[in-house]
């Protein structure tokens, strides 16, 4: 028996020795691996220093892909994620158009790119910080410092748990419950409290029936009240849990299909309360020219057409319309600081060999007489036919982003019609959804139907295929937020341009039309005049 225990003890000692040996080997291997890593990193460090900024940029370009490959255990050749591309389809085949592609993100269809991003998301512990924004340690520290400022902390607290939220309408035949982990109050249409005290729904299982009786007051008798409406509002209790100081957790509400939608909503509210939206001025009550220009760097202030969304789409429209334009006499509203010298469009049209500059500011601000001086026409729109006279009719008039500033658009369109020679063309562009901007005044916005009505009533032929729109819901939001073209890749900017009356986005920022004065072949188009408009119910 004694021999058995001796044998067992010997076996245990051997096992312990083996474990110690394995641990020493593992420790040694780990130390060796650490030494190899340190040596390689030192080589990379020295090489990057020798290579300077260019080497650092190349390293920054390829490093995300290397990290993804190492974390995922992939052995595929490393390519910089920002350099991954896909073979584009030949647009001459029409494949892109058939698939509805707008050319967004040249790498978006690459299997390598998709796999890299998927692995990146899977390996990320902080989804918003790392997987979406890829914040650097320095940026995280900067953001943390921003959010710890008293004003920002107060805004964040309110966005998370602050305020009274509408939760139910009161006194329905079948009572509606207000679900709330906090206080519930009964209010009238002007949000005045009807009951003397709120009800703590958290003590009632997190819900209270939204009825006047629940709050100890008599219900409304419809004929006895001017505004017979009551509703319930909820104010959640801040209650800390294991992962939240106030019990708040981002979650989907109402019809949200994605947590991302809720994240966008929270960030929008937080930026608004922190005076960081709109991005230009931070002033939520004013979004005009000052807000547009505030997003631009100072050196670009005099070059705003390259930053404003509308101007990009107007330029795109006019380039596409050049083959349809006659000549030689072309009139455009030129730059008020350089009369006769700085016109944006007429010099791009080969047919416009006799350019004329329409100057309104001079006569408006200095009370100068209306007249023609060389190729400068000092006039307002309504006086233009008289100022030009019977012998100087235009072949093309560029009225780009003008009609929102015209007090009587019907009369103005008729004046431009009269100022054109037979067969002449009018380039009409106007905003559908632009912020208020006085130049010197701002009166109207135009839908595609509204633009068509204004032009046809003046006598123009405006066929549907010569309409286009610039912008959609995203860009309408972006414009109000003070964003510029440089905030988007050009594939997305160009992708928000629509050709044809029926294709124009209901949220387009701008409406563009090429209209003609008869006689012109465009007038034979069945959608060009009153017959089509009457068919659509748009009657004079």
What does this structure look like?
The chain is an alpha/beta fold and 540 residues long. Among the domains are: 61-73 and 112-159, no CATH class; 163-238, no CATH class; 303-535, Vaccinia Virus protein VP39 (Rossmann fold, 3-Layer(aba) Sandwich). 38% of the residues lie in helices and 14% in strands. The chain has 16 helices and 15 strands. The chain has helices spanning 2-72, 95-99, 111-123, 127-132, 137-147, 150-161, 259-273, 289-294, 309-321, 361-366, 384-388, 409-419, 448-457, 473-480, 490-495, 530-535; strands at 165-169, 177-179, 182-188, 199-200, 207-209, 230-236, 329-333, 354-359, 371-373, 376-378, 394-400, 420-431, 467-470, 497-499, 510-516. Strands 9-10-8-7-11-12-15-13-14 form a nine-stranded mixed β-sheet, sandwiched between helices. A four-stranded antiparallel β-sheet has the order 1-6-3-4, with no helix packed on it. β9 and β10 (376-378) form a beta hairpin.
Unreliable segments of 5+ consecutive residues:
4-11, 81-108
How are the strands of the largest sheet arranged? Answer: 9-10-8-7-11-12-15-13-14
What name does the CATH topology of the domain at 303-535 carry?
Answer: Rossmann fold
Q: How much strand content do the residues show?
A: 5-15%
- In terms of structural class, how would the helical and strand content be classed? alpha/beta
CATH superfamily of the domain at 303-535: Vaccinia Virus protein VP39
Query: Regarding CATH, which class of the domain at 303-535?
Result: Alpha Beta
Can you name the CATH architecture of the domain at 303-535? 3-Layer(aba) Sandwich
State the helicity in percent bands: 25-40%
- How many helical elements? 16
Distance between the termini: 116 Å
Rg: 34 Å
Please tell me the overall pLDDT: 84
Number of strands: 15
The major β-sheet equals: 9 strands, mixed
